[in-house]
Amino acid sequence: MQFVGWAGLAYLPEFDEIDLGYRFLPEFWGSGLATEASRAILT
């Protein structure tokens, strides 16, 4: 297994909102990982 980045939810109390965020290593940009991770998190 290889680390490629992270994705998750964070509560922003100053806005009373939940933020979905992600960061991936540049070599994995454009491969659809952000879309896949975001859909899984929202499901």
Spatial extent as radius of gyration: 12 Å
Uncertain runs with pLDDT below 50, 5 residues or more?
Answer: none
Shape: elongated
What's the number of extended β-strand segments?
A: 2
Derived from helix and strand composition plus strand pairing, the structural class reads: alpha+beta
Could you explain how this protein is built, in words?
This protein is an alpha+beta fold and 43 residues long. It contains one helix and two strands. It has one helix spanning 33-42, and strands at 5-12, 17-24. The chain has a two-stranded antiparallel sheet. β1 and β2 form a beta hairpin. The longest helix has 10 residues, at 33-42. The protein is elongated and about 35 Å long. The mean pLDDT is 97.
Describe the structure concisely.
The protein is built from 1 helix and 2 strands. It has one helix spanning 33-42, and strands spanning 5-12, 17-24.
Features:
single chain, alpha+beta, two-stranded antiparallel sheet, 23% helix, 43 residues
What is this structure's SSE topology?
Layout: E1 5-12, E2 17-24, H1 33-42
Antiparallel strand pairs: 1-2
